[in-house]
Predict the structure.
Amino acid sequence: MSKLEIKIGEKYHWLSVLGEGQKLRLPSGQTNRTIKCKCQCGNEKDVRLSHLKRGFIRSCGCLKKTKFGQSGKKLYRVLRAMMERCDGKVENSPTYLQKVITVCDQWKSDFKSFILWAESNGYAEGLQIDRIDNSKGYFPENCRWVTCKVNNNNRDNTLYVDYNGEKIALKLLLERLKLDNHYYSIRTRIIRGWSVKKAIETPIRKGNYHRNNF
């Protein structure tokens, strides 16, 4: 039987193939072929080829540890989704491709660095990664962890306003001021040329505007 070929760089879950590993001798005397792999956490490990191919081993063992356990799995999915958006593999990829949005090489080549950045910059269950400047890519200085509501209000078509020295999405501001029921009326005023302060602080007369204006 011909020797099964492996490709350098081929990926199996968290493991990337580096080359041939040392032969593993079992208690029965039988020898097993192993493959030297690099885990996305940075560690290297010789893995039995059969276990690698069948998915019995997915990492160097770090997934079983607290630091790279459940949180690591979730952060890996976050990073993978980021890369797929930027590589043209999901529905909204054209927007990312047109704007040349990319994931920084540091995070793409070293998953451990992404975990360390996330854990040091406010990552918590339920938060989403958000680009501060939507015209730029995913890199430490341009990313933050936010709630779904904040993320949804940081889009290219989001209307930002300056109010009392703060730049903020109009929708979030009006929610804070408990005026979110008048969002469309106030937005219409601003688009028509009203100052932000006047648009927000002038009482809404019933019947002036309707939610279906936009």
Summary: Confidence is low (pLDDT under 50) at residues 208-214.
